[in-house]
Amino acid sequence: MVVPEGFVLPPWYLLVPLAVALAGVVTILWLLAPPVTDETVVSFAPWMMLGSTLHVLYKIDAFPSQIEALFSAPAVYATTATVAGIAWILGSFLYAAGLQRSIEWFVGLSGTGFFSVFAAITLLFGWEVGTFQPFWPVMSVIVAGIVAAVAWIALSLWFTEVATATSVTGALVVFSQALDGVSTAVGYDVLGASEEVPISRTILEAGGSLPTAEYLGAGWLFVLVKLALSLAIVGLFAEFVREAPREGRLLLGLIVAVGLGPGTHNVLLFVVS
């Protein structure tokens, strides 16, 4: 098995319009060629978190059956990317018309608004059904922040040119992967959650087979692997970001999404289930 459990494609009458809409948005953005800076990547962070929130709502059956497949995996990524792309397009036009102080301001503000609303709905669901348990999820965010900060400070001291080149985007890559790693470890070792991604499950099982599992659990190895990979990726992308800042930061932004999305998903799901 090479795909995560729960991999569902929407029926054709939802999949085709979604694919057409996403292709249209990508085409318009390609023609507009908006700038991609550190601020751009940060402004899309709430949209990455929104996608995860929508998938959590899908898992707790919060959507009508007619459209719920749009928020399954992997369709939820396309759904969120389409709406976020529309916000990017609108932000570009509003900025060009002098109605917004920056494109990133509009993208970040709209993404934060959507994320806040749907995250509140998710938390309210957990509160109403009596499954609201925030302690360990909140702890995983705090620990991830500390781990990421230590790792980024170490990188900045020993590989200053890498940290300078990748800047805020590089730091966000490290934090996003740390959040995914720590939240997965907490879920696996403390909350008894299962892991859907085959590769991640293999690493967790490897950690559980080590002599340290009795004392440290199995998740520490997963955190270490995620952190090492994120630092290696930042190091490998440093030269690319210098030579092609737009393309380099765009690719690093996708790597941020790969970590921040699953990490946010873990945290919210553990809070309400």
Features:
273 residues, mainly alpha, 2 domains, 10 helices
Which helices and strands, and how do they pair?
Elements: E1 7-8, H1 12-32, H2 38-59, E2 73-74, H3 75-96, H4 103-129, H5 135-158, H6 160-189, H7 198-208, H8 213-216, H9 219-243, H10 245-272
Parallel strand pairs: 1-2
Helix pairs in contact: 1-3, 2-3, 2-4, 2-6, 2-10, 3-4, 5-6, 5-10, 6-9, 6-10, 7-9, 9-10
Structure summarized in a few sentences:
The protein has helices spanning 12-32, 38-59, 75-96, 103-129, 135-158, 160-189, 198-208, 213-216, 219-243, 245-272; strands spanning 7-8, 73-74. With 273 residues, the chain is mainly alpha-helical. Strands 1-2 form a two-stranded parallel sheet.
Number of strands: 2
- Helix/strand structural class: mainly alpha
Main sheet record:
2 strands, parallel
Helical fraction: over 70%
Assign an overall shape.
globular
Give a description of the structure.
With 273 residues, this protein is mainly alpha-helical. It folds into 2 domains: 1-130, no CATH class; 133-273, no CATH class. The protein is built from 10 helices and 2 strands, in the order βααβαααααααα. The protein has a two-stranded parallel ribbon. Helix 5 (135-158) runs antiparallel to helix 6 (160-189). The relative contact order is 0.14.
